[in-house]
Design goal:
967 residues; alpha+beta; 8-stranded mixed β-sheet
């Protein structure tokens, strides 16, 4: 019976099976008991077509008139259906000859049904469905795809085939029940060239040679979701190691196999560490790691066969410790999935966070256990938590548990929320519930639901069972409410802010909670406390669960706290809870006094959290007193931990931009120079001293802050490095292997202050440089940072002037780059207004100019409104006279957008500038006599350096600055 999904064979006339609108979810009427999959490929000949035979034993669980499964882009379908005899398990079954199939392209469903519509399949019956088909490998990592490996010496090309089934791509490989809840056993056979090898989820069971072709049969898998089914056909070589009866192998192109020994060693250690940590053994006899030229993302956690992008697991630069630990975390994330996602799988993509959140968090925990000297949990704050906090601050978000249905919706839930936010929530309860108790609950969860599928309630019930056996929590009523507690986090969209208001007269504390946005959401929030009299920051379990209400007041006695009026109080020890904390001003002063006396008493994580939590309040002008912020800053002169510096850098940037042009600006930079100088000198003393490099991203924060405050040592340092790079082509990589984290900062700050002669020399180099080179991009991008007005005008004329003959960017890219320069360099703003005033007749001939002008108009200060209105009128009249068209209308002179971004700045200055100025005068009684470069100038440096700013200007501006670029 040959019917084609996309072949020349006529498709059956549509029946009621597709006439009605069906759900995009599979019905639960039938269930796969086991698959036998045979794929035949001539990939060695460069033939990307493959033939498949998928034989599926199916159980009818509810009487129905159809068997529905997924298939996509598969052709030449031939189906055979047999009714099996439950009393004769070895029987081949009775042929069913009155069935046909229909294809539903919307749901990518292959529907097997009787020719005449009736209830053909009875509950309790079993069928064997054999489907012969043809597929075509693609070049993108979706389904079964191919890649070419060139051998430069012999000029020989070898083709490799690999799979990517997650999330909904298994249906591109074989007809199947392509939802995670439909777990089944797979027996896989692959026929390929005898010159190649194949690997799959399970060890090889049999190899049959047929001359030029070989058929490899693999052992049957445990029940597994289709998104984890995988195989690779290649000429790869491998290295192996066996420990605790688990053989781990790393497969790669033959020339690179020995570069994987470090990764293989880490894999062996990690599997053993995870087994010991959770008390649950790895469930397969082997675990392969395959390095591929192309992969979906950095890696894919297929059960027993993890695939990686080649450079993620086979580093070319083994000396780069920063890159090495990132790659180790990535590898351990995939290994953690062998428990979270593979052994226990989510019943639907609603619960992706059960996979990704746990794999993210416990990859850090296990890596920290294995390599305690790497300070991995500090990296968690920087690389995971900071993104999770910032995501909740300014983007539309969704709950962790979030129903999706279409293929695109499913892809979209693999996002910051599933990975980073979920990891932060898991971390919070790991600490709140006592770490050992939480792990005991997770161990219960893994053992109870192994080889099964779960939803979030299964996890919560396992945690509650463990909590009820924890003697330390026996008197706590909340231990009976774990579902309610956890649901308040997994079903909320935003992030809580907890305000802690002490009443110093009646010894009470009022806790208030609100969403970081205006949405009405409330949480069960685990609080714990450190005080001046009892500051055990290592005890991070919950001491009080704040109920989901706006405000709650308790006495110190009820909280078991001892506090005098001048004592400090810290809530959320080590910032293990995923929420912001705000304090009353008196308590902030008490904390500031402690920091100035001995900052090490307060944990470094909490020192960083103080500034992270205050930042949004400062930026919204909601802080009561700015003096207390400056008092908190003061101790930073003695801070050697880089985490607080990372958070202070963000607030410094905000303040420096807001104070630009005021009488307080130079005083503020003088104050910052005093704070940052010891740390800069410690980190950036001569490298020949052999001091180990610290976190490259944190170093970038220090360089940016120090140079923007015009610290002479920083300006000299970056000036030297930038000039060596520009004039001597000296690679910065020798000092900073991770160029993309540091490169932009060094060049930007190095060109910040230049003499006329230096600027002329740089421009001369630019003129003779290949415009398609990264070196050229670097120069153009770094020159945006110059502070000299004449240099800036020359730069703008180079980019946009009518006499520019250098074709630096195309017209659209150049204009979109202009607002980026405007927003990132305060010194450039007046220059750009002057440039537009002189060049608007040239600029307005571009259909993109008006959009750029409209965006810049959001930064018009109140005292420049009349200037703006005259300039706008001139542009409008000229465009009307010349009949010039633009993509969008010119902004109305009375639009609320005009000056919108400056109003917050003006309100800030009106409220705090006098206060800041007086405080700085008291703090800095002596005039600054340091030899600085143009100390009155200032610039906001750019974001992390893109791969090529000139070729991706539109994307860079849109993502970094939030400009509407739909031109």
């Amino acid at each position: 019976m040959a019917m084609g999904l996309a072949s020349t064979t006529p498709t059956p006339t549509p029946t009621s099976h597709i006439l009605y609108t069906r759900s995009l979810r599979l019905p639960n009427d039938t269930y796969p008991l086991g698959y036998h999959l045979h794929i035949s490929s001539n990939i060695h000949l460069g033939d990307f077509q493959f033939n498949g035979n998928a034989t599926i034993d199916i159980e009818i669980r509810r009487s129905t008139n159809e068997i529905v499964l997924h298939a996509k882009n598969l052709t030449d379908i031939e189906i055979t259906l047999r009714l099996l005899d439950n009393n004769k398990p070895d029987s081949t079954g009775e042929l069913v000859d009155d069935v046909t199939h229909t294809y539903d392209p919307q749901g990518t469903f292959l529907i097997i049904h009787p020719r005449e519509n009736y209830q053909a399949f009875e509950a309790g019956q079993r069928y064997r469905l054999e489907i012969l088909y043809t597929g075509l490998m693609g070049t993108r990592p979706k389904g079964l795809y191919w890649m070419a490996y060139e051998e430069p010496i012999s000029n020989h090309t070898t083709y490799v085939a690999a799979t990517q089934s997650e999330p909904t791509y298994a249906r591109l490989i074989l007809p199947c029940y392509d939802e995670p809840a439909f777990k089944s056993n797979f027996t896989i056979r692959l026929t390929h060239s005898s010159a190649l090898i194949s690997v799959s989820n399970m060890p090889v069971q049999q190899v049959q040679n047929h001359g030029e072709l070989t058929t490899t049969t693999f052992q049957t898998t445990p029940v597994v979701s289709t998104y984890l089914v995988a195989f690779v056909i290649s000429d790869f070589d491998h290295i192996s190691e066996t420990y605790r009866n688990v053989t781990q192998s790393l497969y790669s192109s033959p020339t690179r196999k020995n570069t994987g020994r470090s990764a293989l060693k880490n894999a062996v250690l990690t599997v053993a560490a995870l087994e010991d940590y959770f008390g649950v053994s790895y469930s397969l006899p082997k675990l392969d790691h395959v390095a591929l030229k192309k992969n979906q993302g950095a890696a894919m956690e297929n059960w027993g066969l993890i695939t990686f992008k080649e450079d993620s697991i086979l580093p070319q630069d083994t000396s780069n410790e920063y890159r090495h630990i990132k790659d180790t975390l990535m590898q351990n994330h995939e290994i953690s999935h062998q428990w979270f996602g593979n052994l226990v799988s989510p019943e639907w993509w609603t619960y992706v966070w059960l996979n990704e959140g746990f794999a993210t968090y416990f990859s850090y925990i296990i890596t920290d256990l294995l390599y305690p000297n790497q300070n991995v949990m500090d990296k968690f704050f920087k690389d995971e938590a900071e993104h999770a906090y910032s995501y909740s601050s300014f983007l539309d978000v969704r709950p962790m548990t979030y129903y999706v249905e279409t293929e695109q919706e499913i892809m979209n839930v693999f996002d910051i929320i599933s990975y980073k936010r979920s990891a932060c929530v898991i971390k919070m309860f790991h600490h709140a519930f006592h770490q050992k108790t939480f792990v005991s609950g997770i161990s219960r969860y893994l053992k109870k639901f192994q080889y099964s599928v779960v939803n979030e309630l299964d996890l919560f019930d396992s945690l509650q069972s463990a909590l009820l056996q924890d003697g330390q929590f026996q008197q706590q009523s909340w231990t009976q409410m774990v579902r309610e507690i956890m649901l308040s986090w997994t079903h909320s969209e935003w992030l809580p802010i907890v305000s802690v208001i002490r009443n110093y007269e009646n010894n009470t504390i009022t806790f208030r909670q609100r969403s970081i946005h205006s949405k009405s959401e409330h949480w069960w929030i685990p609080l714990n406390f450190a005080t001046a009299q009892s500051h055990n920051f290592e005890q991070t379990h919950v001491e009080y669960f704040m109920p989901p209400m706006m405000e709650h007041t308790l006495s110190l006695e009820e909280l078991h706290l001892q506090l005098s009026g001048r004592d400090w109080l810290i809530v959320n020890k080590q910032q293990t809870g995923f929420y912001h904390v705000l304090y009353d001003t008196d308590n902030l002063h008490a904390i500031a006094r402690q920091l100035q006396q001995n900052h090490s008493v307060i944990h470094a994580n909490n020192r960083a959290a103080l500034f992270q939590d205050l930042a949004p309040v400062i930026e919204r002008n909601e802080i009561e007193s700015f003096e207390v912020v400056l008092e908190l800053f003061k101790y930073m002169e003695f801070e050697e931990n880089l985490m607080p510096w990372n958070q202070v850098a963000n607030t410094y940037e905000f303040l420096e931009l807001n104070l630009y042009g005021t009488s307080s600006h130079s005083l503020f930079k003088q104050f910052i120079r005093r704070l940052v100088k010891p740390t800069f000198q410690r980190l950036f003393r001569k490298h020949e001293a052999g001091e180990a490099h610290m976190d490259i991203l944190a170093q970038a924060d220090i360089v940016s802050m120090a140079c923007r405050a015009d610290l002479p040592e920083c300006l000299d340092y970056t000036h030297r490095l930038a000039h060596e790079y520009i004039f001597n082509k000296t690679s910065l990589g020798s000092e900073y292997p991770d160029l993309y984290a540091m490169h932009d900062i060094l060049l930007c700050m190095g060109l910040r202050h230049q003499s006329d002669e230096d600027f002329r020399k740089v421009m001369n180099v630019l003129y003779v440089t290949d415009h398609d080179s990264m070196y050229f991009d670097d120069l153009v991008y770094a020159l945006r940072c110059t502070q000299n007005h004449r240099h800036l005008m020359h730069y703008l004329n180079l980019l946009l002037g009518e006499n520019s003959t250098y074709s630096i960017m195309n017209e659209r890219e150049t204009l979109l780059y202009l607002p980026y320069v405007f927003k990132s360099n305060m010194a450039a703003r007046s220059v750009i207004w002057h440039f537009i005033e002189n060049k608007y007749k040239l600029l307005s001939r571009s259909p993109h100019f008006v959009q750029v002008f409209n965006d810049i108009c959001e930064y018009v200060p109140e005292h420049r409104m009349s200037y703006f209105q005259m300039l706008r009128q001139s542009i409008e009249i000229y465009m009307q006279q010349e009949n010039l068209k633009s993509k969008v209308p010119l902004i109305d002179k009375n639009s609320s957008r005009v000056g919108k971004k400056m109003r917050t700045n003006e309100q800030f200055l009106e409220k705090f500038e006098h206060q800041i100025h007086n405080w700085l005068l008291k703090e800095l009684p002596q005039p600054d006599s340091e030899n600085i470069f143009a100390a009155s100038l200032s610039v906001g440096n750019g974001s992390n350096r893109p791969g090529s700013i000139l070729s991706t200007a539109s994307r860079m501006v849109k993502s970094a600055l939030g400009v509407n670029l739909s031109l």
